[in-house]
Specification:
The chain is an alpha+beta fold and 352 residues long. It has 2 domains: 1-126, Immunoglobulin-like (Sandwich), CATH 2.60.40; 128-352, Muramoyl-pentapeptide Carboxypeptidase, domain 2 (2-Layer Sandwich), CATH 3.30.1380. The chain has 5 helices and 21 strands. The protein has helices at residues 17-24, 201-216, 233-238, 277-288, 331-339, and strands at residues 40-47, 50-54, 56-61, 66-72, 80-84, 88-91, 97-100, 106-114, 121-127, 129-130, 138-139, 142-143, 163-167, 175-177, 180-181, 195-197, 225-228, 252-256, 302-306, 315-319, 325-327. The longest helix has 16 residues, at 201-216.
Length: 352
């Protein structure tokens, strides 16, 4: 299908007040550092069952896939319109919007607008290039490599990706959430455009929560530096990294805070006048609390911290593998985890 402008307007409807309250209870209403805005709206929309309260979010779909979007308006009776610049829009019996992606890979925009003139939600929809179009280990000339032939422990999250987002100079700066852009998650492998990336919406939501928690803790940060996002299997292998690194599935990021000063290294987060692993420890503990509430249970994943080397400063690995995994934990934290009966992953379950 050509990328012609197609505007479809369907009326939105309501869910329950309880679900709306759940969304508004997400972190973000505590005091935060001056100058930071979480990028949340006064309403939320469930996207394929995941609550999104952000003014901008992204979805990653295959050609022809359908996506269900339901505004959460409680008992207010507020009505919404959904406009899409491509694909088709319909409404199911529960009065949720359903968008069918166009057959042509590319980036498209969905806009959810309150009829009363309130702020709009923008959803950047990336229709992926099917992995089946790869020739050998390359997709459109870009080296991907080979994913493990066997999914780890038979888990679906370790199946090879169905598709890849095509990244060009034109869309690399496109926001994928309020504080992150598509280009931040590109593999560090050398080479020109086009490039390809795999990225998971849950990772974006978790990173936004981390940034929000940082500001609530008094760290005036308007961004996290993504030291490493997606890694192709070829690049991951060249690093000598673990075979099943979650980076290869777009669900992991190595991050640090670099805002004061902006010098390409971790900031002094614990205020001891030094930048070392203790700052990664501070960030680790903050991130560890992000998924403590039941409503964030879907963002559970791996967490590890790393010391500085000659090549980089200290940083923290965070992922959304769907199960708890911990490594690089300071001894006191390990002891506390054991006393509380929490699972601390074995070496076989950890890894970047």
């Amino acid at each position: 299908m050509s990328r012609e402008t197609l505007m479809k307007t369907i009326h939105g409807s309501t869910l329950t007040a309880a679900l709306l309250a759940l969304c508004l209870a997400l972190p973000g209403h505590a005091a935060r550092a001056a100058g930071y805005a979480a990028g949340k709206l006064p309403y939320a929309v469930t996207i394929d069952g995941i609550i999104n309260p952000y003014r901008v979010m992204s979805i990653f779909v295959m050609p022809g896939d359908t996506v269900d979007l339901t505004p959460m308006v409680g008992s207010t009776g507020r009505r919404f319109d959904l406009l899409a610049d491509a694909g088709s829009v319909s409404r199911d019996p529960m009065e949720a919007f359903r968008w069918r992606a166009p057959e042509e890979p590319g980036d498209y925009v969905l806009r959810i607008s309150p009829r009363d003139g309130g702020p709009r939600m923008r959803i950047n929809a990336f229709v992926m290039v099917p992995a089946a179009r790869s020739v050998g280990e390359r997709l459109d000339g870009y080296l991907i490599g080979r994913y493990p032939a066997k999914a780890r422990k038979g888990l679906a999250i370790y199946q090879p990706p169905r598709g890849f987002v095509r990244v060009t100079p034109q869309n690399a700066g496109m926001p994928v959430s309020p504080h992150f852009t598509l280009g931040q998650f590109l593999c560090k492998e050398a080479g020109g455009f086009p490039k390809f990336v795999v990225l998971r919406r849950k990772l974006l939501m978790k990173l936004e929560l981390v940034l929000e928690r940082l500001n609530a803790a008094g760290v005036a940060a308007d961004e996290l530096t993504v030291m490493s996002g997606y890694r192709t299997p070829a690049y991951n292998s060249s690093l000598g990294n673990v075979e099943y690194s979650r980076h290869q599935w777009g669900g992991a990021a190595d991050v640090y805070v670099d805002v004061n000063p902006r010098d390409g290294r971790m900031d002094d987060l614990n205020g001891d006048g030094r930048v070392d692993r203790a700052d990664a420890d501070w960030l680790y503990r903050l991130i560890d609390g992000v998924t403590a509430k039941p409503m964030q249970a879907g963002l559970i994943g791996g967490l590890g911290q790393y010391s500085a080397t000659r090549a980089h400063g200290p940083f923290v690995h965070v992922d959304v593998r769907g199960m708890r995994a911990r490594w690089g934990v300071p001894a006191p934290a390990n002891a506390m985890a054991s006393r509380r009966g929490r699972e601390v992953a074995s070496a076989g379950d950890s890894g970047r």
